[in-house]
Amino acid sequence: MPRVSQDHLDARRRQILDGSRSCFARFGYEGATVRRLEEATGLSRGAIFHHFKDKESLFLALAEDDATRMADVVAEQGLVQVMRDLLAEPAGGTGSAPGADWLGTRLEVSRRLRTDEEFRARWAQRSEQLTAATRARLKWQRDAGNLRDDVDVDVLTAYLELVLEGLVSHLAMGLPAEHLPAVLDLVEESVRRHRGS
């Protein structure tokens, strides 16, 4: 029997993550049945669970993958850009912007953190990545003279993370979003250093 290349295995894993992301976003964790995961990925349960031990491992890998993607955006452009990306394509949209993907996963992570103690323990090991990227970006901005210096970086990190959680909740409730880009402008302005003032 021929050996499968690592590139093929990596591509299959990516296919599973991408397909299951939309399934979890649309149906939630409980509603993402194996049948729905098969339909969303175009693969059999055997193929899916060859790469992931169980549905929880698949969801954690997906959430970790999204956290990595978000941390990459934070490192390049800051946490406010992640929030702008969430607004770019709200959940349930048909576009290809990362917003709907990230929002769906983020909402499900938030829900499970509140309701599932075992998940909370497993996720705690993975959740530091976005915080660390935000803190590093803010320190870099402070060193460049772009960030206000009268507030500790850890406080600014917590502030931006709270704004992110508030934005996620706002979008999850389906509340109007037309003023949110201006709100994010205000948030971004609030952490900037104002020279000469």
- What is the H-and-E element order? HHHHHHHHHH
The gross shape turns out to be elongated
Task: State the CATH class of the largest domain.
Answer: Mainly Alpha
Estimated share of beta-strand residues: under 5%
Instruction: Spell out the CATH superfamily of the largest domain.
Output: Tetracycline Repressor, domain 2
Specify Rg, calculated over alpha carbons. 19 Å
What's the number of structural domains?
2
Helix/strand-derived category reads mainly alpha
> At CATH's second level, what is the architecture of the largest domain?
Orthogonal Bundle
Main β sheet profile:
none
Number of strands: 0
Summarize the amount of helix as a percent range.
Answer: over 70%
Q: What is the fold named in CATH at topology level of the largest domain?
A: Tetracycline Repressor, domain 2
Average pLDDT reading: 85
End-to-end distance, in Å? 72 Å
List unreliable stretches of 5+ residues.
91-97
Helix segment tally:
10
Compose a concise summary of this entry.
By secondary structure, this protein is mainly α. Helix 6 crosses helix 7 and helix 8 (128-143) packs across helix 9. It has helices spanning 6-31, 34-41, 45-51, 55-77, 79-88, 98-115, 117-124, 128-143, 153-172, 180-191.
Explain the overall architecture.
By secondary structure, the chain is an all-alpha fold. The protein folds into two domains: 1-52, Orthogonal Bundle (Arc Repressor Mutant, subunit A); 54-191, Tetracycline Repressor, domain 2 (Orthogonal Bundle), CATH 1.10.357.10. Helices cover 75% and strands 0% of the residues. The protein contains ten helices and no strands. The chain has helices at 6-31, 34-41, 45-51, 55-77, 79-88, 98-115, 117-124, 128-143, 153-172, 180-191. The model is unreliable at 91-97 (pLDDT under 50).
